[in-house]
Amino acid sequence: MDHVKEAAHDESSMVIARVWIKNLSAFLNAFERRQWPLLSKKLEDSAKETLRRRGDMAVAVGSEDRQSGKDGSQIYFMFPQALKSDSPAMLNRGLEHLREVLSKESAGIRPELECVIVTYPEDGSTADELIEKLSR
Fold first, then answer.
1. CA distance linking residue 6 with residue 127, whole number of Å
2. What are the CA-CA distances from residue 120 to residues 16, 83, 114 (Å)?
3. How far apart are CA 49 and CA 57, in angstroms?
4. Could you say which of 27, 35, 102, 121 has the lowest number of CB atoms within 10 Å?
């Protein structure tokens, strides 16, 4: 969360969003475990393609280790120097791309995405505070 430290140093704002697949188990059951990392990479690449501003980031992160096949179960979007009011427009494009990739690859499973958005400094002044709010 070095970006939070940079935002604090620059006294600027930052929006961070955590997106996850609510029905992940259905996708994991539909794919062989060894195929999931490939789809996860496609999701991360798709999320990155939606970014418009220099400095915006999208990263796939797993809730378990990479050996488990569950890497990429979450996508984090980071928008430095952005306000929470800007986040719907910024995220909608990313969410639509993620849904498209999942729908194409899913063999009929309808993707259900969930999202939590936090803003620095409104929702927390430290990385730990923001992480705690993102984890809810």
1. 11
2. 8, 9, 20
3. 10
4. 35
Nearest CA to 80 among 105, 51, 108, 100? Answer: 51
- Pull the structure tokens for residue 43: 């999701």
Whether the CB-CB separation of 55 and 6 falls below 8 Å is answered with no
Give the C-alpha separation, 75 to 98, whole Å. 10
CB atoms within 10 A of CB 54: 6
**Residue 7 Rama label (left phi>0; alpha psi -120 to 50; beta):** alpha
- Write out residues in the chain with pLDDT < 70, as ranges: 1-11, 32-34, 62-72
> CA 4 to CA 124: how far, in whole Å?
10
**What's the start-to-end Cα distance of the chain, in Å?**
18
Spell out the SS3 assignment of 29-50: HHCCHHHHHHHHHHHHHHHHHC
Q: Model pTM?
A: 0.81
Q: What is the pLDDT of residues 37-76, one digit of tens each?
A: 778 888 889 899 989 888 899 988 865 444 444 445 789 9
